[in-house]
């Protein structure tokens, strides 16, 4: 059962700078709420921390806790974002899920919280 | 025969947030209206939902319903967009079709509905 | 309805040499005989001609004739091979179909007719 | 709990020809028997059928049945091969699992049953 | 001899929407005006139609008509753009040619006509 | 008009060793003998020289001489091989043409002359 | 022990132009401060110099000096940036670290100093 | 010895349009001024011409003239840009050099002249 | 200091079958014995077990133990192979190291122990 | 001037095992003997040592010594092989040069010395 209390944070070591943190989990899986068949996704988290950063091992365990939950793509994406925002209180955060092909169609859901103008990355 | 009544929607689980939904169908096929020869395309749908989201299985069946229709690239792209806009009433929607090589030329047609400034994705 | 009489041949312009001919059709589609849902494959034909070669446009039309047939992967691969062998009488022929992902699984079926030692290709 | 009775077979439509069947499942997951953490693999099945072929949907469900089993890489690879050999009685079969990176190391386990000389594929 | 009269147009089926049309010809060839040696390019046409769209087969034949013409990269790029603008009267059009390596150098020439702000594509 | 007299050779600087020479021409074009439409191919020449090697610039000009000839895939492949064998008298030679997609099908034709066992390449 | 005194600079040969300098080190390694296990990263440095440029060999040695230090991703990224800013006094600088997969998750940390509008790169 | 007098220009055939010209030289080599060891780079030139365009063969010979010169990355990039600006007087020009790995680090230097807003390319 | 006593083994769960086990460590690093500069490699281990298999976590720790050792490419490759052979007593084993570019040259060293004919993998 | 006396060797640390050593130099350049224009190649050396191994830095310097020599592809490939064989006396050696595109054609020359059966690499 997905459990947001698993998420741990640690003090941001450079709170005075708006720098970007990107974590990409390649091994997310949950269940389809209709058919109970497994779904697989890549979960990309991008954020600008304020006072705390998300601890990486707890992020892994939190994502694992969806393994046997039945939940829709659109719902799980927003729920993970909401849980992480609540625990970490970032200046800006984006959560994007990219799902494996089902019926010849692959899907990406991408949600944001906060002001994306706080920082820019040179690409 | 293409039939927009196949398209089903469900309530947007997070209507208060402007998040992006991307579905990419890799297996679209229709017929050339002049030669009746098969055409093949990848169909990419990107949108920001308002009150409803497009149900994925019904999207697959709706796209399959073009299988034996003769229709031009430019026309089918705008027709699919119009049908989906009518059923889903999104804040913003883009429909892009990418067609296999014919006579050494490949083609992409890309149409939008609504205001693209409602949301931005960090890339 | 798949129809082997569509296949046309022309005289092999160099019958005295065992050379290889490879045609790869990227746009094959048929129907699942159980669900009637569309299947998509890449069809690779490789052969050493004897007296006749397969005419390319007729090969395309023959493959198109499966568009609305319900047929299993294993069956259609062997059926196409048998039809082409009957029309062309090659020294050696291989027919391989590579199918799009279904339920997270992609499939390849590969069948041969005749003696593969007649020719080797440097790779 | 992994259950080989899920595996279904159907009569080989062309039993007189030694042709190759390849199925690649991109979404296999089980648990580490030591840490209970999830493992992820790509499972490639290649075989030459005798009297029966493996039904694709049942193969998917059989692989899904390992989802919450704790089992070692080397063990699960040989176990899947043994189960499929028992149900399908192929002329030749190969089962290969390719596992995601753990501790900076990725792993592949590859086991065979029967005589690999029954058929050759032109590459 | 390159001949702009080959270019045919058809009525834009959705003239009320500023949608993008991209055609990429992978097989363009002309001659170097100095050495008469063949040059090879990929020609990418992108435009927003007004009242008419460019017919795809006529575009192919028009591009083929440069096959035995001696013409510089910079000149042919602008000439094709001018010819297509004259026949199609688009809201916006871009013509880009990408040339094969000569003397260890590859080249791209990219020219536009009209106002590129009429439409945006989400990428 | 294709003209084999263009092909020039020079003395093999190391005639006592069976070494491999590979030349790959990325820009071959000829015409379809039926429709007069352009065809495009990549031409790969691989050989073990005896007393003479093929001069590279003359090979380029010889291949260019097919530019406005109407000729079938199978025929041109064997004709180029025959012309090069006649001029160079190699211990072994392979000529392979890989043609652009036509009607959703791409083609490769591969022919050899002489004994391929004279040399092996470690791969 | 990481030591910023290793970093050497040389006079900017073109101080009147805001041009970009990018250095990407593919072989950075440090230790996890919790487990003492090795971490591996690609370190990308991008900057616009003012009076001095960073000497490349000293940059390499400075990055090597982290080899046996235990330090967190977020901390080391900001520390390297701070050290380089102090020694080089650039108009703008970005430091990005991209870390190998740990627990199925890869990470990128990206920090900037100064005004990114001083220069733009055409892409 | 690098010699800017080698650079030749020809009249811009379409001086009334702000179109982009990109040349990428894949085979640049010079010497390290400290160790005299060879350096290798890809040199990308992008510009909007005014009255004259840079002649491609003379560009190749000009770049070759650095072959035995000892010069730093930052210096040679700005020097080539300055030489080309002086000879061609473009509306805008960018010169970017991308250098092979040295000590596990690869480098890119990117400099511009003039106003980059004169033209935009749709990507 | 590299220490072969770290390597642990466990009983082969299927000792009656000659199956292949491949482990690829992407993060190996040691020191150059001449310059003391870091070297980086990918280490690929492939083997057919007899009575015991190599435990994955101990393999990781064993490879980490070379981190501060000065040792030549050819030597370390054979030494790792010898250590693993001694601990695991495989039917066949191959150890291959692939080293990062030094002076524009990358290197691969590949050594085997035992009889490679015990098993073949279908590719 | 190319000078084989630059090549240094060191004692093979494991002379009792037939293991493979591969060095790939990505930055070889020489001159065309006819036009004096630069040629660029990737040089791959593969060998099984007997009593001595080739020292990597001296290999780099030896290859650099061709920088201003005019020499044909076929000649330089065999000359490098002969020089390395003379200095190192390997059990087996292969030298392969892969040259950049000239006139739309790229070339590979591949020569061997000794018995290739002394060792096999699992691929």
CATH architecture of chain A: 2-Layer Sandwich
Element order of chain A: H for helix, E for strand: EEEEHHEE
Largest sheet composition of chain A: 4 strands, antiparallel
Main interface pair? A-B, 22 and 24 residues
Q: Helical element count of chain A? A: 2
Structure overview:
10 copies of one chain form a homodecamer. By secondary structure, chain A is of the alpha+beta class. Chain A has a single domain, classed as GTP Cyclohydrolase I, domain 2 (2-Layer Sandwich), CATH 3.30.1130. Helices cover 20% and strands 41% of the residues of chain A. In chain A, strands 2-3-5-6 form a 4-stranded antiparallel β-sheet, with helices on one face. The mean pLDDT of chain A is 94. Chains A and B meet through helix 2, strand 5 and strand 6 of A and strand 2 and helix 1 of B.
Task: Describe the structure concisely for a colleague.
By secondary structure, chain A is an alpha+beta fold.
Features of the shown structure:
four-stranded antiparallel beta sheet, 2 helices, 20% helix, alpha+beta, 6 strands, homodecamer, 123 residues, two-stranded antiparallel ribbon, GTP Cyclohydrolase I, domain 2
Secondary-structure blueprint of this entry?
The structure is a homodecamer of 123-residue chains.
Chain A: E1 9-11, E2 20-31, E3 38-48, E4 52-54, H1 56-64, H2 73-88, E5 92-102, E6 105-114
Antiparallel strand pairs in A: 1-4, 2-3, 3-5, 5-6
């Amino acid at each position: 059962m997905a459990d947001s209390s698993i998420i741990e944070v640690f003090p941001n070591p450079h709170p005075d700078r708006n720098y970007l943190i990107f974590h990409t989990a390649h091994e997310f899986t949950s269940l389809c709420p209709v058919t109970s068949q497994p779904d697989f996704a890549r979960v990309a988290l991008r954020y600008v921390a304020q006072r705390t950063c998300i601890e990486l091992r707890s992020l892994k365990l939190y994502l694992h806790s969806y393994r046997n939950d039945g939940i829709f793509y659109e719902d799980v994406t927003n729920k993970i974002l909401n849980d992480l925002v609540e625990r970490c209180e970032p200046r800006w955060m984006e959560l994007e899920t990219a799902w494996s092909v089902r019926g010849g169609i692959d899907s990406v859901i991408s949600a944001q919280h906060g002001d994306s103008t706080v920082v820019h990355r040179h690409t």
